[in-house]
Amino acid sequence: MIDLHTHTNISDGTDTPVQLINKALASGIKVLALTDHDSIAGWDEAELHLRPGMDLVLGAEISCQTEDGISVHMLGLLFDPSHQELQDVLAQTRENRHSRMSKIIGRMNSAGIEISMEEVLLQLSEGATLGRPHLADAMIAKGLANSREEIFEKWLHNNSPYYVAHYSPTPEVAIALIKAAGGVSVIAHPMASLRGRTVSVESFSSYVEAGLDGIEVFHRDHTADQKNLLKGIAADLNVLRTGSSDYHGTGKLNELGENTTERDQWEALESKANSRRIVRKN
Question: Distance (Å, rounded) from C-alpha 250 to C-alpha 147?
Fold first, then answer.
């Protein structure tokens, strides 16, 4: 099985990188991508604890925003971590998440929902990328709700009055940076409408012109009709199609390997990187 989209507690997952590696091995996954939000801080630990029998694909899920304010997530895989311009953009995105969180908390406080930045930061692992799931965990710890799903459905979805956008590059800029760093780019869950507004079909041509390599077709947040539509778009634009779990550990229903990438699609995707960066232990 090939799973090209997972998270650890370096961003908004609950497993450490080594826990993710062990669970993936136990699940029979042969190729695993680590794609924490806007961060590569978990790469070293994952690589250190990798064992024979599984290939590790190092990457990140980059937060993007279109010029008309639609949130887009771009998976960057197999890029050179020393590419300074890409790392600067990731750092700027992470830094902006703190001011964004302060604004969200301020809006919730004004509405009578008592939660503090200090309580949220207690849920954050050292070096992790701050996100709304950490606010959800703080609210659970305070007894305001029982699960992340409940909190996102009620308070933290993209159409909520508490939602605040944050700095992010456009998808085209992110794709260009990933390519400049020698990696490959895949747009993540592009039609997951429950997360908020989604990009138009016409937008994909602009992404391909910027260098997009693939579309995450098989994802639990896509309906059967959306998967068929995305398969057609991938074929028409001559880009590759992937499938992934978007695993986050405890707090989300997503299970490792629940959606996977076909071997031929992965091999074609990997060949587009400018260097062979798969991590493997014999």
Answer: 10
